[in-house]
Design goal:
The structure holds two protein chains of two kinds. By secondary structure, chain A is an alpha/beta fold. Chain A contains six helices and eleven strands. Chain A is globular. Among the domains of chain B are: 151 residues, Mth169, Chain: A (2-Layer Sandwich), CATH 3.30.1280.10; 295 residues, 2-Layer Sandwich (60s Ribosomal Protein L30, Chain: A), CATH 3.30.1330; 171 residues, PurM-like C-terminal domain (Phosphoribosyl-aminoimidazole Synthetase, Chain A, domain 2, Alpha-Beta Complex). Chain B is globular and about 80 Å long. In chain B, helix 12 packs parallel to helix 13, helix 13 packs parallel to helix 16 and helix 27 crosses helix 29. Classes of the chains: A alpha/beta, B alpha+beta.
Chain lengths: 255, 930
């Protein structure tokens, strides 16, 4: 049976269909579920094996990217989502989805249900503006079910204005799942535009302690076909993002 | 109730403040030492200290990077530090403030129910300037009077005023007015109607034996505006010729004579809908059709660049929604005054071109990125003629399953409005865009601009696509200029309707009936829905946070009836409203071509290098990466050829290729454009040919089939009541017609924006160069065969294809071979004989080969006999071919003009005849920022 993936369609999600395409290609049965529909049927979430918070501009980024959707998660689905996460089912938040998971406190750490205590955030890009460009990502975590055994560099676009990962205290390396690197895999060392947003330690993706939740700013779902590669007319074919989704889907299948 | 003021500041370095500092320095405020910007939130309500703290921590700040403090008004926040000036800015009442709306909603979600209303603002702390200079800075950069108010020191927030709805309807005594008084009335109400039109209105009401209400008068003014009915393009025109006084000709409607007629003559079987709907529609594959529309939002962008461009993008997206299509790509072509213009030379009331550009670009970015439509093709042009009148062309492509778009309201259907609420915003936008601007325009017509709300429009997309598939509506149209009066009026034009304005949901009370009916509040669409399907549509709307309002019914009585509760405010015959406008009679003079000696002296060999580098770094040619990169061109995952290409993704693509998500097979869509104001100044007829050729050439360069291209026209012109201006427009239309037939490329939609003139305080007219944008949409059979312009491999051969005309005319002709060359090139692409292709445009062959070197970071050795190496020509491209394909390629071009001019080299040096230039120098010059 194909693992079922719930793609949460919030007010302002816009890469929902992109990620559904990638999940389908990776072998999942992906369904877009509008937030209001999930509000009316909260138990629905338990029927799914994967939870995906896609990219977009939920609530137009009002009061900070991801913030108001994070508030929705806490207000409406706190129990359902934490049960899902605690069951170590695969969860991924991409771009706005990453912002949501961080601002909801699901990443990097445990969710504290009595008080929102953000240890980390995704703030405005150091360059001061939105940016769309292709980047290279290196997997740095074997603990994260999404990024383990990703031996090849992933090449995919970013498209965000608030992707600068910062934390109050240094984030421990076990949480770092993906970093921005040069095409040859060497460290970006904070240099723009290899590190496109000024994230501390070139962080592109963060995982939780159990490794089942991944949040990342770049869009691997926008590099799943050869013709999406920016240099496909030069014969370059490497760096597909599909493997990352296959990891998540395969993990769900084996659960 | 109390009002609390929250101040949110960034703890560490703040890129936003640095941006303001840089912009202020560029505008000449050199004494400015430091500027820091902070967010202000005003919250009205009954709140405990604990709740205030919760609001600050959970809602208004990011605790990692920001901190907040708050006070209860009217106490001042703090005393400013010595040597610094505080400036506070907030929105005018009635201007959409989506953040404020979210604060109220989210507070209630946090169970802080005492929050009643909210408003937002900005606080600037400025160091190094005196108060008077800060005031100047506020006007030049930090605030815009059109939508904001500002003050030195602490500002009083403005919440939308709650006054009781007036319901007031004014009767306009028109029946006895003299001609002069009729014209005065038109002017006073900013109706932009001429005497013949005013007399037609007068006659109608004399016959009706009553005077019109203000709602009726405003409805007529909107319905008959240039923006809505294109009266210049439908006028009868008497044409005289300056070089032959005895010659007279006339035409009846430019649209019919030149544009539609070309499409009819070509009669392409793959054109599904041309010139009738909100957007043109062509065939894509067995399953889908694609639609395309481009609009301008020039006047609003001149007075409020961000809001003007923002709502321009939103408006054209609704055009595509209006044909039941899902929007999949945006295009944006922008024309501005020179960025380095001396601020002192600006006409009064005109914003600096630098500020206009940054506002417009930010507006395009905000809407396109947030709604999730990739911005994939565009151009930015600079000319002094655009200083007071920037041009903002917004295009949108949509896709829909075939046969699902319905356009047929039934008697008994409900008149349904979906989307945003109605406010006082955007009143009289249609007539505003049909008038010459003056120094007061910004203030008087300020209301015609507003900030868009892309997320509300995203909700509309989600609802419409599903409602279409479920067949929940019988007709659909967008609310654009003229608001409900135009959308409902148009939809009911064949059937009639009866609507009640008290049902329209308002942002705030107090609107008079004519304001509700005419408001151009954004993000609204109108539908005809069978009564039994309302509940299904309502469910869909609930799911996607979209408001549905049923305001009346389609009657079958063929009258437009509008009520305000019990009161009848409009009762007019459809035929009068939609057919009663007298055809305009205009006069045009076609002047002799301005023959200018534009043959520049041949560039001596020792200057070729510096000339090429200065061309590459000139504003019109230099890289637009800093703009392109802030647009999301990847969302929806279909961008095959991206706006920037090559090994370092910093070379300019000729066109975009899109493979729409959800389509099967390998087919793709090609988008390109042609525009040339420089040619427009010289010869409008030849200019039209040139821009058609440029658009088609660009599309073919990336792999489009030249026999499957359709185009849109967008004319931006001066005042058509001046015969010479109209003469140039006639010539441009004639050029469109002739070129369209030559290429077999039909027009599928178009739009005009006239009166792009500015009457300066100096009493002089500032008109734009006659500007025609041709937007092309083509088909590529296999996106895997897309071609980009970057050189691929050393040792490959470089060919010039097309008839390179060395004789330099006023404007280059389109060579007779152009179409055959494009067809041959297309065949060569399909046979995999082409590695790269790039069109010759501004900067000619020299710039084209330089850009190809930049793209591939490879060198080239080129020998070219002509001295016109930098001249702009039509019908020509450079292509790269591998040596093994040499003979196959040359066979493809047998009997067509082509020449082998060089080869690609490993050494990163461009050798143009005897001149050598390092590719690194080309890269640097091209990436000069302006």
């Amino acid at each position: 049976m194909k693992p079922k993936a719930l793609v949460l369609q919030a007010h302002g999600s816009n890469r929902d269909f992109d990620v559904m395409d990638a999940l389908t290609l990776a072998g999942a049965d992906a369904t877009g579920v509008p937030l209001n529909e999930l509000r009316n049927h909260k138990s629905l979430l338990a029927d799914f094996q994967l939870l995906v918070v896609p990219g977009g501009f939920s609530y137009a980024d009002a009061l900070g990217a991801g913030k108001l959707l994070a508030l929705d998660l806490a207000s409406y689905f706190a129990d359902e989502v934490s049960a899902f996460v605690d069951a170590t089912k695969p969860v991924i938040g991409i771009c706005n989805g990453f912002q949501v998971l961080v601002k909801a406190g699901i990443l990097p750490g445990k969710q504290n249900q009595t008080q929102v205590k953000n240890e980390a955030t995704l703030t405005f890009n150091a360059e001061g503006h939105f940016e769309c460009r292709w980047v290279n990502l290196k997997s740095t975590s074997q603990n994260c079910i999404w990024t383990k055994d990703l031996n090849e560099i992933i090449t995919c676009p970013i498209a965000h204005g608030e992707g600068n990962f910062q934390s109050i205290e240094n984030i421990s390396s076990e949480h770092i799942a993906l970093t921005y690197v040069n095409a040859n895999g060497s460290s970006a060392n904070g240099v723009y535009p290899i590190n496109p947003n000024g994230s501390t330690m070139d962080i592109a993706g963060i995982t939780n302690a159990k490794g089942n939740v991944l949040g990342l700013m770049p869009h691997p779902e926008n590099h799943i076909y050869l013709w999406q590669h920016p240099r496909h007319t030069r014969g370059e074919t490497s760096g597909s993002g599909l493997k990352l989704f296959e990891n998540g889907v395969n993990y769900a299948r084996q659960m | 109730m109390s009002i609390y003021k929250f101040l949110v500041q960034t703890k560490n370095k703040d890129p936003r403040s640095n941006g303001y500092l840089r912009d202020a320095h560029l505008l000449g405020f050199q004494l400015l030492k430091r500027i820091s910007v902070q967010d202000l939130y005003f919250i009205e309500g009954q709140l405990s200290q604990e709740e205030l703290q919760q609001l600050a921590l959970k809602l208004l700040t990011d605790p990692v990077t920001q901190s907040a403090l708050w006070i209860e008004l009217p106490a001042p926040l703090s005393t400013p530090q010595p040597d610094s000036v505080i400036l506070e800015v907030s929105l005018r009442p009635g201007v959409t403030d989506p953040v404020a709306e979210q604060i109220v909603r989210a507070s209630h979600e946090l169970k802080i129910n005492g929050v009643h209303r909210a408003a937002t603002g900005l606080r600037f702390q400025v160091e190094g300037l005196k108060v008077e200079q800060v005031e100047q800075l506020a006007k030049a950069l930090l605030a815009n009077n059109v939508i904001q108010h500002w003050t030195i020191g602490e500002i009083t927030p403005s919440f939308p005023e709650e006054v009781e709805s007036s319901g007031e309807v004014e009767i306009i005594p028109i029946r006895k007015l003299s001609n002069d008084k009729l014209l005065a009335l038109s002017k006073e109400r900013r109706a932009a109607l001429d005497l013949a039109e005013m007399k037609a209105v007068q006659d109608y009401f004399i016959e009706a034996k009553r005077d019109p209400t203000d709602v009726e008068f405003e409805t007529i003014a909107q319905t008959w505006s240039e923006h809505c009915v294109h009266k210049t393009f439908k006028a009868k025109i008497d044409i005289r010729y300056s070089n032959d006084e005895s010659r007279i000709s006339n035409i009846d409607s430019l649209i019919k004579t030149y544009l539609k007629s070309a499409t009819d003559k070509i009669n392409a079987p793959w054109v599904i809908s041309a010139f009738v709907d909100n957007a043109g529609i062509i065939d894509f594959d067995d399953e889908f059709e694609i639609s395309f529309k481009a609009e301008t939002h020039n006047h609003p962008s001149a007075v409020e660049p961000f809001g003007g461009a923002n709502t321009g993008v939103g408006g054209v997206i609704r055009d595509v929604l209006g044909v039941s299509a899902k929007p999949i790509a945006n295009t944006d072509i922008l024309c501005f005054g020179p960025q380095d213009l001396d601020p002192k030379s600006l006409p009064e009331g005109v914003l600096h071109p630098r500020r206009i550009q940054s506002g417009v670009v930010a507006g395009v970015q905000d809407y396109g990125n947030k709604i999730g439509i990739p911005t994939v093709n565009g151009a930015i042009l600079y000319d002094e003629g655009y200083t007071a009148n920037p041009l903002v062309f917004c295009g949108c492509v949509g896709i829909a399953p075939k046969g699902k778009h319905k356009k047929n309201p039934q008697v008994g259907d409900r008149v349904v409005v979906l989307g945003g609420r109605t406010g006082r915003d955007g009143l009289r936008g249609a007539t505003f865009s049909s008038m010459t601007m003056d120094a007061q325009t910004g203030e008087v017509s300020g209301a015609s601009v507003q900030i868009g709300d892309p997320i509300t429009e995203k909700g509309l997309i989600d609802v419409i696509v599903r409602a279409r598939d479920l067949e929940l509506y019988n007709d659909i149209t967008d609310c654009g200029a003229g608001g409900l009066s135009s959308a409902v009026g148009e939809m009911a034009s064949s059937i009639g309707c009866d609507v009640d304005l008290t049902r329209v949901k308002l942002k705030y009370p107090g609107l008079a009936p004519w304001e509700i009916w005419l408001s151009e509040a954004q993000e609204r669409m109108v539908f005809a829905v069978a009564p039994e399907k309302i509940s299904d549509l309502q469910k869909l709307c609930d799911t996607f946070n979209t408001e549905l309002t049923d305001i009346g019914e389609f009657t079958g009585k063929n009258r437009l009836i509008v009520r305000y509760g019990e009161k009848s405010v409009v009762n007019m015959d459809n035929e009068f409203l939609h057919e009663g406008i007298p055809q305009r009679q205009l006069k045009a003079v076609i002047r002799e071509q301005r023959i200018e000696n534009i043959i520049s002296a041949p560039i001596p060999n020792h200057l070729i290098s510096s000339h090429l580098l200065s061309l590459l770094s000139s504003p019109n040619i230099a890289s637009k990466a800093s703009t392109i990169r802030i647009y999301d061109h990847e969302v929806q995952g279909g961008t095959v050829v991206k706006p920037l290409t090559g090994i370092e993704a910093d070379a300019p693509s000729d066109a975009a290729v899109i493979k729409p998500i959800g389509t099967k097979g390998t087919k793709g869509i090609v988008l390109s454009n042609g525009i040339n104001p420089e040619f427009g100044k010289r010869d409008a007829y030849q200019m039209a040919w040139s821009v058609m050729d440029e658009a088609i050439r660009n599309a073919v360069a990336v792999g489009a089939d030249p026999e499957r291209i359709a185009v849109l026209d967008n004319f931006c012109w001066g005042d058509p009541l001046r015969p010479e201006t109209l003469g140039a427009l006639v010539e441009a239309c004639r050029g469109c017609h002739d070129a369209s037939l030559f290429y077999g490329t039909p027009f599928i939609s178009g739009k005009d924006s006239l009166n792009n003139e500015y009457l300066g305080a100096d009493g002089l007219r500032h008109a734009i160069p006659p500007t025609l944008l041709i937007s092309a949409i083509g088909i590529i059979q296999d996106v895997n065969q897309s071609i980009t312009m970057d050189l691929k491999e050393a040792g490959n051969l470089i060919y010039l294809v097309g008839n390179f005309q060395t004789e330099q005319k006023n404007i280059p002709n389109v060579p007779k071979s152009a179409l055959q060359v494009y067809k041959a090139l297309h065949q060569a692409i399909k046979n995999n004989l082409i590695r790269s292709a790039h069109d010759l445009s501004e900067g000619g062959l020299g710039v084209a080969i330089a850009e190809m070197c930049i793209g591939g970071r490879l060198g080239a050795e080129v020998k070219f006999e002509s001295l016109n190496i930098f001249n702009e020509v039509n019908g020509c491209l450079l292509v790269e071919v591998t040596p093994k394909n040499e003979s196959a390629f040359e066979k493809q071009f047998a009997n067509l003009p082509f020449q082998k001019i060089g080869e690609v080299t490993t050494k990163p040096i461009l050798k143009l005849n005897e001149t050598e230039i390092r590719v690194e120098e080309l890269v640097q010059a091209f990436n000069t920022s302006h």
